[in-house]
Amino acid sequence: MKDKIISLKSVVFIFFFVLFFIAPHIIQFFNQGIIIPGDYFFYEGNFIESFDSLTIYIKENYLRSLNLIKNPIFIFFIVGAIFQKIIKEI
Amino acid sequence: MSYFIVISLWAFFGLQHSYLARPFFKEKVKKYLGVTFEKYFYRFFYFISQCIVFYFCYDVIKSVDPGEPLLKVPENYIWIIYLLNKISNIFLIITVFHFDIGRFIGISDMLNFFYKKEYTDKLNNHFLYKYIRHPMYLAIIFTYFFSTSVYTSIFFVNLICIIMYVEIGLYYEEKTLIRVFNDEYIEYRKKTFRYLPFVR
Questions:
Q1: What is the pLDDT of residue A74?
Q2: What are the sequence ranges of the domains in chain B?
Q3: pTM listed for this prediction
């Protein structure tokens, strides 16, 4: 019997990987064009130039850092862990 | 001023990140919060704290006055940076998917507590890890490098801080890995590059 070259699991993995992690980049490209995150901050950034502006910035923004639900690192790892668990179970 | 803020924030992030992950700190956690907490819950709380601290530090770092551009990629070639940015992002995601994310963020440990399971550490030496011991660090450096087409002095200060953080972090991380895997890791280290290809 021939060895299976591609298993169902790898097809499912590739499909969902593309859906969750690659398709958003493609959609963003078609909706917004070429956007480089660092350039956005360079041209549009709210620049801290002194200790006073640093203090004001921290006062205005520290609560945002505490909000885990909107924390992109937290979301990325939680989604990744769930995704990996689903793939393992298939 | 900008340099001072950026270097201080990277130093703060790196120090607390390494300190909280060191075995002697975990011993303190065991002493004050109990062996069960350290074994099954500490990693998840550590993950949450690092999400908050990193997000906070990086948010401030990217809002610091970047100064005048030293190097600007010409308009015609910006698409190359864009493409490299996307490739680096996907490379970073692939490196993350290469290890057990649940274990990395502490969810598996918590589930082990509720399901009364035990976890045995296994050395990850498949696919990219066959050649490079820490591909995620390489991906982080690439992702940062291609995150802009306007290179300022602050960009390079950030890059140096990231490389220093990676170097110091790796020194301690490898010490821990040798303690956990002993000869298996020492042998693995001889056969692989650290995070840059061709640099052991």
A1: 93
A2: 2-191
A3: 0.86
* Percent of chain B at pLDDT exceeding 70: 100
Q: Which amino acid is at B109?
A: D
Q: CA–CA separation, B44 vs B62, rounded Å?
A: 27
Q: Which residues, in sequence order, are CB contacts of B174 under 8 Å at separation 6+?
A: B133, B185, B189
Pair B43, B105: CB distance under 8 Å: yes
> A4 CA to chain B: closest CA distance, Å?
19
Per 3-state DSSP, chain B is made up of helix, strand and coil in percentages (nearest 5) of: 75, 5, 20
| Closest approach of A37 to chain B, Cα-based (Å) | 6
Amino acid residing at A67: N
Coil, strand or helix at B35: helix
Q: What is the mean pLDDT of residues B23-47?
A: 92
ipTM field = 0.86
* Torsion, Cα of B70, B75, B77, B78 (10° steps): 80
pLDDT score recorded for residue A4: 62
Would you call B84 an interface residue with chain A, using a CB distance cutoff of 8 Å? no
Residues of chain B with C-beta less than 8 angstroms from the C-beta of A57: 60, 63
Mean of the pLDDT values across residues B86-110?
90
Q: Which of the 8 DSSP states describes residue A34?
A: S
For residue range A5-63, list pLDDT tens digits in order: 678 878 888 888 888 888 988 998 999 888 888 888 888 777 888 888 889 988 888 88
Q: Which two tokens stand for residue B96?
A: 């993350």
Angle at B63 between CA B141 and CA B55, to 5 degrees: 60
Q: Would you call B160 an interface residue with chain A, using a CB distance cutoff of 8 Å?
A: no
Q: A74–B64: do the CB atoms touch at under 8 Å?
A: no
**Which residues is B65 bridged to in the sheet?**
none
Select the residue from B12, B53, B60 to test the A interface by mutation, using most A Cβ atoms within 10 A.
B60
